[in-house]
Amino acid sequence: MSEQGRNEPYDKLVEELEEVYEARGTRQFLTALGRLRSWAEDGNVDVATFLGEILALPGPAYDPCEAYKWYYIGLCQSGYSVEFDDQNLTPPYYCGPVGDFRNESMVSDLVTKLGFEKVRELDRSASAYLAARR
Predict the structure, then answer these.
(1) pLDDT digits (tens, 9 = 90+) for 4-52
(2) Beta bridge mates, 100
(3) How would you write the chain as a 3-class SS string?
(4) 110 in Cβ contact with 53 (< 8 Å)
(5) Do residues 52 and 70 touch, judged by C-beta distance below 8 A?
(6) What's the Cα-to-Cα distance from 93 to each of 15, 28, 34, 69, 111, rounded to whole Å?
(7) Per-residue pLDDT tens digits for 75-101
């Protein structure tokens, strides 16, 4: 199977989500979001990161804790560092070393919103989630 063929179901789901994004409270959007979550839970790294992105955006699907969790899961498997190492020392603003996933714009906003204590709790939860699936 070609690389393009392997991504076709994912690409179709992304298109579907984009089409109904403005109507995020609709059954169609929530159904597509549920399928996306299932794929993320099945271990698809790109889907996990995309799910984090959707959950981080304002609207009825907004869930900063879940968004952070899926960013952690997706980005750590893409080579980003997950060790909590704030070098800024001005909470709630985090600045980690190069390669730290928390330095990414959307994730950084979530860290600021959630606070360091909650982020560390979510780090432990996401790490345990990954360990249980290995």
Answers:
(1) 445 777 788 778 777 777 776 788 888 888 988 999 999 889 899 999 9
(2) 81
(3) CCHHHHHHHHHHHHHHHHHHHHHCCCHHHHHHHHHHHHHHHCCCHHHHHHHHHHHHCCCCCCCHHHHHHHHHHHHHCCCCECCCCCCCCECCECCCCCCEHHHCHHHHHHHHHHCHHHHHHHHHHHHHHHHHCC
(4) no
(5) yes
(6) 34, 37, 32, 18, 7
(7) 999 999 999 999 999 999 999 999 999
- Residue 75 CB-half CA count within 13 A: 24
Domain ranges of the chain: 3-132
> Are 6 and 43 in contact, with CB atoms under 8 Å apart?
no
Contacting residues for 65 by C-beta, under 8 A, at least 6 apart: 114, 118, 122
CA 43 to chain centre: 12
User: For residues 100 and 29, what is the distance between their CA atoms, to the nearest angstrom?
Assistant: 31
